[in-house]
Specification:
This protein has 347 residues and is α/β, with parallel strands linked by helices. The chain has 10 helices and 13 strands. Helix 9 runs parallel beside helix 10. The two termini are 34 Å apart.
Amino acid sequence: MASMARFSALDPASMSVSVVRKVIVMMILLGTSAARDSEDSAGQERVRIMLGSCNKVERKQPFWELIIGRKPDAWVWMGDNVYADQRRSSQNSFAQFLKVLGGKEPIGYESIMFEPSDLARLKKMYEAQKTHAGYRELREKVPIYGTWDDHDYGINDGDYRYPLREESKQAFLDFLDVPKSDPRRQRNGVYAAHDVQVGDRVVKIVLLDNRYNKSPYCSWPLRFLCQGDEDFLGEEQWRWLERTLVESRSDANIVVSGIQILTEHRWHGENWARFPQSRQRLLDILLSSGAKNVILFSGDVHFAEVSRAVCRNRRRNAEARELLEMTSSGREGRGGGRGKGLTCCQG
């Protein structure tokens, strides 16, 4: 599943939440041919960005032709760009459980169901994706940006304990053709920001890394909320994110996370709600930075979803603020879609 964002030549000051909602609707519909022809004939400047996640290299990938046909100004990977770790057999999982229980596995319980990837397998899968005919054509025509999630990081639900995290980071940056001189080569993570400009319209893509510095979950296999100081980003990335958004002068700001941000806590899978303090810190930054027209994007869950959060600072009786998140994560398996709303509180 891929999503497309189109930001029309509107006065940025007038680009209210209602306008952003229209943009979200356009993303869901992926733009019908009739609508696209009508918009193109209007002669307006647009920044067209397409995003996607959860890609199985070994399966057919017929979507690249569609993506290229929509002539995006950038393509953004949102994680699980390849699936390098491998699900264990029941017998193997039990043996691994005993190993973890005995304190002989540094990765912890996350390694019980999935076998971590080695570097050779990871590089082989990246190379297979880069040489896929459709994706190769896209690379020749469109700038490629991206972040990762757990399965391309190297281990399901992975965190900072993954022993190959630095080697995996370098392999991922090689996959994106990132120069050796790029700051990400020395950074604690793959987080980055990129400006995409068409005419005088600029969209900033802010890519978070929720793996390299992530804390371990506080419970397994139960999915309890972690009420301590568990973190997704690490202090270096937090400072970078706040500075990036505060200094942004872009007409719109797309913030990309490998896992969902706004959704309430679920008893399956991953999301930012599992680390409530970390999630609240992120919401506070998003709402107080002054960055214009912030829209969230995420992957991971293998379905499409639109989430809306209504945020209030109850201590200051402030006016309600809204955030919207688009999850585009249907390319590995089942499709589908849903919409939902929730309420959060800005600290």
